[in-house]
């Protein structure tokens, strides 16, 4: 079985997933200091994963993101029709849940090069 992870690298520490579904506008990627056109989001990632026969693996934003945003992303991808985010997925043309099995919390969370990096004591307090 093949697995593909997205968003990857330092990019995820600043990735606003909610801005990557539905109507999109570019945003400034603080990690790479460039404008991100924001044309590839969750729906496109799931579609691409299916097209190449890979399991999608979503890396959540542990930098500038929140626990609530992570939970909302799981809802968008995996709940059938309950809740605001599942209903948005349906409105975006995806009536069936994506059933994403693989998730991670951030990228290299130990690294001070990550946006809003935390040390072990700070992570322990969460």
UniProtKB/TrEMBL annotation:
<dbReference type="GO" id="GO:0000272">
    <property type="term" value="P:polysaccharide catabolic process"/>
</dbReference>
<protein>
    <recommendedName>
        <fullName>Alpha-L-arabinofuranosidase 1 catalytic domain-containing protein</fullName>
    </recommendedName>
</protein>
<comment type="pathway">
    <text>Glycan metabolism.</text>
</comment>
<feature type="domain" description="Alpha-L-arabinofuranosidase 1 catalytic">
    <location>
        <begin position="2"/>
        <end position="110"/>
    </location>
</feature>
<dbReference type="InterPro" id="IPR055235">
    <property type="entry name" value="ASD1_cat"/>
</dbReference>
<dbReference type="Pfam" id="PF22848">
    <property type="entry name" value="ASD1_dom"/>
</dbReference>
<dbReference type="InterPro" id="IPR017853">
    <property type="entry name" value="GH"/>
</dbReference>
